[in-house]
């Protein structure tokens, strides 16, 4: 167990709807990243949050947005859902880049499987 | 876009045999990591090897890194049924101030009892 939790575990939505996925980071980790994993593919970086600010974003449209809260928990919001948004959404927490650990290892939650019909 | 490519895409061996998976990547790296994923769930970190290291061991795992060839291999010795999973290599990349992991497509490993 990594100590990273995600909710819900599964979700079914229809095209055009909006969805919010939640993530609770491992204790002491102030950096959270979100990834999208399509079936049979490796995870793709969506964005990262550090101290409640977006810290970098992958090649995803603005309808993918996020929040990080003072307790370092995080949300991923997706608006105007499309069929191709069906995937496993993973969040990962890590220590900051500074310091001995350098935050290189990311600890993943179990994921939320989203199906868009 | 995917940075790394794992080879083979699928591997099926008998319990007790050794399993070797390879990963190639395209750009220079600070480190390379291997993760395991069971049944489409979360990824579990296995091992990290830095760009100035050539080989690293952790239990039954052995990872090598050849930066001149931009490739890495993961060896699992004395495989067990519980090792059945997908294995991903991931390289780190600093991107707009974020440290993101860039994954390959993975190797699906099946250990037959």
What's the main sheet of chain A like? 7 strands, mixed
**How many strands of chain A?**
11
Mean pLDDT of chain A: 90
Proportion of helical residues of chain B: under 10%
Mean pLDDT of chain B: 90
> What fraction strand of chain A?
over 45%
Radius of gyration of chain B: 14 Å
Q: What is the global morphology of chain B?
A: globular
Oligomer: heterodimer
**Structural class determined from secondary elements of chain B:** mainly beta
Structure description:
The complex is a heterodimer of chains A (117) and B (113). Chain A is an all-beta fold and 117 residues long. Chain A has no helices and eleven strands. In chain A, strands 2, 4, 5, 6, 9, 10 and 11 form a seven-stranded mixed sheet that branches. In chain A, strands 1-3-8-7 form a four-stranded antiparallel sheet, with no helix packed on it. Chain B is 0% helix and 60% strand. Chain B is built from no helices and eleven strands. Chain B is globular.
Task: Explain the layout of strands and helices.
The complex is a heterodimer of chains A (117) and B (113).
Chain A: E1 5-7, E2 10-13, E3 19-24, E4 31-37, E5 44-50, E6 53-57, E7 64-68, E8 74-78, E9 87-94, E10 107-108, E11 112-116
Parallel strand pairs in A: 2-11
Antiparallel strand pairs in A: 1-3, 3-8, 4-5, 4-9, 5-6, 7-8, 9-10, 9-11
Chain B: E1 5-7, E2 10-14, E3 19-24, E4 31-37, E5 43-50, E6 55-58, E7 61-66, E8 71-76, E9 85-95, E10 98-103, E11 107-112
Parallel strand pairs in B: 2-11
Antiparallel strand pairs in B: 1-3, 3-8, 4-5, 4-9, 6-7, 7-8, 9-10, 9-11
Compose a concise summary of this entry:
The complex is a heterodimer of chains A (117) and B (113). By secondary structure, chain A is mainly beta. Chain A is built from no helices and eleven strands.
């Amino acid at each position: 167990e990594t100590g990273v939790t995600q909710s819900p575990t599964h979700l079914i939505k229809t095209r055009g709807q909006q969805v919010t996925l939640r993530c609770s980071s491992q204790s002491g980790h102030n950096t959270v990243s979100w990834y999208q994993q399509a079936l049979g593919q490796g995870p793709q970086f969506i964005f990262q949050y550090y101290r409640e600010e977006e810290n970098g974003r992958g090649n995803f449209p603005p309808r993918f947005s996020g929040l990080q809260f003072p307790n370092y928990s995080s949300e991923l919001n997706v608006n105007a859902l499309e069929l191709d948004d069906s995937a496993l959404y993973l969040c990962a927490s890590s220590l900051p880049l500074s310091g001995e650990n350098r935050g290189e290892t990311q600890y993943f939650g179990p994921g939320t499987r989203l199906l868009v019909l | 876009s995917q940075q790394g490519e794992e080879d083979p895409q699928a591997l099926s061996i008998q319990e007790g045999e050794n399993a070797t998976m390879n990963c190639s990547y395209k750009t220079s790296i600070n480190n390379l990591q291997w993760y395991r994923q069971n049944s489409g769930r979360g990824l579990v970190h296995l091992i990290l090897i830095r760009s100035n290291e050539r080989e690293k061991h952790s239990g039954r795992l052995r990872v090598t890194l050849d930066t001149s060839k931009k490739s890495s291999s993961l060896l699992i010795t004395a495989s067990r049924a519980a090792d059945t999973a997908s294995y991903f290599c991931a390289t780190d990349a600093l991107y707009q101030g974020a440290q993101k992991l860039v994954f390959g497509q993975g190797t699906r490993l099946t250990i037959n009892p």
